[in-house]
């Protein structure tokens, strides 16, 4: 049996929101690591929490990946949040 679908909206309870953030941050970093190993790609992941604390993961040197990103001028795939797309 699969997992039940959850509604994606802001978690109102501060403690539950922090627990969810911590678990999902760990899961996201694990997925980034797995993708970098399995597919031999460079990954830079930057996360700021609600109190502006920085968390980051890079499969190689973060500064080198960010420099590569800022110097990249070819068309590329990009995604934004649904709210940002709707304006």
UniProtKB/TrEMBL annotation:
PROSITE patterns: MADS_BOX_1 (PS00350), MADS_BOX_2 (PS50066)
Domain of life from the UniProt record: Eukaryota
Alphabetical list of SMART domains matching this protein: MADS
GO BP: any one term: cell differentiation
MADS-box domain mapped to chain residues: 1-61
Keyword hit for Nucleus: yes
Name of the protein in its database record: MADS-box domain-containing protein
Main location: nucleus
InterPro entries assigned to the protein according to its UniProt record, in alphabetical order: MEF2-like_N, TF_MADSbox, TF_MADSbox_sf
Locations listed in the record: Nucleus
UniProt-recorded Gene Ontology molecular function terms: DNA-binding transcription factor activity, RNA polymerase II-specific; histone deacetylase binding; protein dimerization activity; RNA polymerase II cis-regulatory region sequence-specific DNA binding
Organism: Erpetoichthys calabaricus (Rope fish)
Record key words, sorted: Activator, DNA-binding, Nucleus, Transcription, Transcription regulation
Gene Ontology cellular component terms for the protein in this record: nucleus
